[in-house]
């Protein structure tokens, strides 16, 4: 009798231990299934120096019309690594527009390094909350530097896919017009270029009226992106926008820039193999 009682007690103990393990396993499998079957492929924007989370409002109005309505979510990460958000992503929206901005939005190598750390915080928050497995990245001015640094240092391609990166007026060699004078930010990004996601498509947009600068950023500084991306990513394309609204601060209001985003990011998203179809 005693032997049988101990066997029964042992079996009960094993059963009690098994239930939490099964629950944990099922939860993990469910989370993984939700993550990899995500229908959401957000387009995530980062503004340049001194710009807030509202920097892309006018541009978003261009994309939002009755036949194609995108949710808009804005996030600002403060200097204490806390996230403040405005807006929501609709349940059935496959192409939400997300902005990640920073309370400390100043220029300079040290500030850009901090912003890139805060970008990691924001991306962890977004992927955990919305369970997407792929995204598109767009950065205006220093926002392109934030994206590039993040993709080299913090991005994990085992968990997430960046389909394309589009930089707009991004000063990869700061404000230097002579490429021989390589700046700290260029050396940082060039040194770690081999860590970039190799299956990513990159579009680099430069604005200019005279092929010298866009009023702030030298054309040669934007062009320096080729030394970072060429032979490291699946495809690299540089596009030059000229004429009206081609200076640095008005590039986002340029109809050609909006068309390039529409054709290369928004429209390509519809045929994205990383998105689970309904």
From TrEMBL:
The keyword tRNA processing does not apply. This is Putative acyltransferase. The keyword Protein biosynthesis does not apply. One of its GO terms (molecular function) is acyltransferase activity. It comes from Bombilactobacillus mellifer. Gene3D superfamilies: alpha/beta hydrolase (3.40.50.1820). Keywords: Acyltransferase, Transferase. SUPFAM superfamilies: alpha/beta-Hydrolases (SSF53474).
């Amino acid at each position: 009798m005693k032997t049988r009682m101990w066997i029964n007690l042992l079996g009960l103990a094993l059963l009690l231990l098994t239930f939490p393990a099964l629950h944990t396993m099922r939860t993990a499998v469910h989370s993984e299934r939700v993550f990899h079957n995500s229908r959401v492929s957000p387009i995530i924007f980062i503004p340049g120096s001194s710009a807030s989370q509202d920097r892309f409002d006018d541009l978003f109005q261009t994309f939002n019309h009755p036949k194609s309505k995108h949710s808009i979510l804005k996030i600002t990460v403060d200097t204490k690594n806390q996230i403040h958000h405005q807006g929501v992503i609709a349940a059935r929206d496959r192409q939400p527009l997300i902005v990640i901005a920073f309370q400390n939005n100043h220029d300079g190598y040290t500030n850009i390094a901090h912003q890139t750390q805060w970008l990691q915080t924001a991306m962890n928050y977004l992927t955990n909350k919305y369970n997407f497995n792929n995204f598109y990245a767009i950065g205006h001015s220093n926002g392109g530097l934030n994206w590039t640094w993040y993709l080299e240092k913090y991005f994990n391609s085992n968990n997430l896919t960046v389909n394309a990166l589009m930089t707009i007026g991004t000063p990869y060699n700061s404000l230097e017009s002579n490429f021989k004078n390589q700046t700290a930010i260029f050396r940082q990004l060039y040194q770690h270029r081999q860590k970039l996601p190799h299956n990513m498509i990159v579009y680099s947009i430069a604005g200019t009226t005279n092929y010298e600068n866009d009023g702030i950023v030298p054309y040669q500084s934007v062009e320096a992106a080729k030394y970072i991306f060429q032979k490291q990513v699946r495809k690299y394309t540089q596009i030059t926008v000229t004429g009206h609204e081609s200076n640095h601060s008005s590039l986002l209001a340029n109809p050609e820039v909006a068309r390039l985003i529409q054709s290369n990011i928004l429209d390509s998203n519809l045929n994205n193999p990383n998105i689970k179809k309904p």
